[in-house]
Amino acid sequence: MPEESNKLITEGAKISNQNTGETDSNQPEFYYELSLWFYPSFTEAEINEKFNSLIKNIEALNGVILSMESPQLKPLSYEILDNNNGFWGFISFELASSKINELLNELRSDSKSILRHLLTKRRKEKLHSASRKPKTYSNKKIKEVESGHHLNLEELDKKLDALLKE
Fold this sequence. Notes:
Layout: H1 2-20, E1 30-38, H2 44-60, E2 64-80, E3 83-94, H3 100-109, E4 114-123, H4 153-165
Antiparallel strand pairs: 1-3, 1-4, 2-3
């Protein structure tokens, strides 16, 4: 019986996605962020070449690059393998979770140029539009003020006193 209920839940999810015209494969819930530290012993041109080849490999795995920051030489917060600085780069991308291990194996095999890496899985945040209050119009008619009649200060004081006494 539990297998049937799980089947119904997944079928219900497929149906609800069909109604919106979106499928799970078209709109992944997650994306990945890869932060890299390259060894400082390489030239900037060599680092950019390695970084671009990494981007091409992500795209070869049918990944979609969302954003990136090219590697720049920066100081490290603490010494790593006798290095005080390194080239730091960043890539944000979408990739099928079944392909992540292939990417990680590639990163581990490139230990001669990559000093350290960090891969994080992030949940996409849904953007909500700001709700607007509907405009309300009243049906009350605005009283027209007689333009020819002006009150002086004494008459105003008398009317105020009369209103306050009531």
